[in-house]
Amino acid sequence: MRTRDRSIPKRVRLAAFLVCLPVAGLAQQAPLSVIDWLANPAPETLPGTVLLEPPVTESGLTPQIEVTPLEALPVPLGLVSTKVTGLPLDLWQGSDPVLLAERLMRVPVRDNPAMQTLLYTLLLSETRPPYASRQAAETVLLARVDRLMQLGAVDPAQALIQLAGPTASQERFRRWFDATLLTGDEDSSCAALAASPHLATDYGALIFCTARRGDWTSAALTLETAHALELLPQATLALLDRFLSPEIFEDLPPPAAPARPDPLTFRLFEAIGEPLNTAGLPRAFANADLRDLAGWKAQLEAAERLTRIGALTPNQLLGLYTQRSPAASGGIWDRVEAVQRFETALQSGSADAVAKTLPHAWAAMRQARLEVPFAQLFADALPALDAPQAAALAWRIRLLSPGYEEAALTPAGTGADVAFLAALARGVPRTVTPPTPQAGAIADGFDSDTALPPEMEAMLNGGHLGEAILEAMDRFGSGATGNHDDLGVALALFRRVGLEDTARRAALQLMLLTRS
């Protein structure tokens, strides 16, 4: 069982989003020492020869020189080294930047943690943008940041844009400003805006940041200008009025909550004492509830939501689950109690206590679609259980953990499904009879003779590795909903490009997790 982290830091540890791959060492010859160099004989000098060639010039004048500028390679950008991710720097080369950005934004990963991990790896790995233009590089960068924000991974999104240079353009700054508003780091972005006011896309950010710096007079003057020239929507102007002059509105009803607030509107509502519920807002807003300002229930709900999509580590979720005793019953409180009782049983060392509490904890986590995080936390600590049902459940939990291959060596129970799961975890599902059509499609994906469609072969042959992986992820999403041909092709491509662990985990999760 992993050590829990009871605090939710402002910066999520970025390495927790990735599957660490072995580092491939490059064989290098050590340089010669001075003694070695002196000991080596100098090369034999060859006698001069007369070149029986015509003269290369007929005069002593300086020849005319033609100069052709060489285009510099784009600078690699990413938070995690290629030595960790195993992906090449030229992952995106040759791909159309606009189509690539669209693929990055739409590839489905919601119901499969293995696909989530792969997408985070693609988004955070150090890579070069396509060799097209500066605008092409910007298109891909902004798509990476936007998808991270969409997933709720605000800390990595903020770090990526900071690494790229958040003040290089208004589009970069807008994304950086939004991220800092949700993580509580707006002082840094406001300081940058004070130094370069032209970065603001509207007067709202200028007014907010001016007030944050303590210059309320200048903020009020800017707001008056915005009113006079109608530079902002009326709802935003009214909200800024309340923000700068709260005493005037003390006896008035609160403003209506907007359906789709931006991060600045969200923070302004919080500042006037009317915080918005993040449950119905995009995932990125859930990060605001991880701060100490939020109550425990809000923190728990936000942590579950972010862990479900892989944007928060399981260990941080466990830290919140075990922070204190449940305050009530029903819903999330039942999950908290079930996990706490199971952890207590695990720490007691009693196999009987574990067998008794495991089914309840598993049912609670299954209801929240948090089975894989639960497996990552507790699978290694599960003892050998005598009760057949508990032992079978514990084995399936181990198959959802990083130790799936070791678990496959000691299957619990008999039957075609058990045999197939064990074979799949070892990477040889074709050695047994598939129990279902879905299992048959998975087995086809592990057949070395499975051919890829011509368009996927063309991507690989053209060096479009990243685009080919995204295509396989799209097909896996289609295969998960019943298109068995797409499922087999997706797994075959993952294995073809060296993503064997991803292929096995994704297939095991597809078979073991019930999703509607």
What topology does this entry show?
Elements (H helix, E strand, L loop, with lengths): L33 H6 L42 H4 L11 H10 L6 H12 L9 H18 L2 H11 L5 H14 L2 H10 L7 H10 L3 H14 L4 H11 L18 H9 L24 H13 L5 H8 L10 H17 L2 H17 L3 H8 L9 H12 L4 H4 L8 H10 L11 H9 L8 H8 L3 H16 L3 H13 L3 H13 L4
Give keywords.
25 helices, 54% helix, single chain, mainly alpha
| Straight-line N-to-C gap | 30 Å
**Mean of all residue-level pLDDT scores:** 89
Portion in beta strands: under 5%
Low-confidence stretches: 11-53
Tally the helices: what do you get?
A: 25
- Taken in chain order, the helices and strands follow as HHHHHHHHHHHHHHHHHHHHHHHHH
| Radius of gyration based on Cα positions | 29 Å
Based on the structure, what is the oligomeric state of the protein chains? single chain
Structural class: mainly alpha
The tally of strands reads 0
For the largest beta-sheet, the strand count, sense and barrel status come to: none
Q: Judging from the principal axes of the Cα atoms, what is the shape?
A: flat
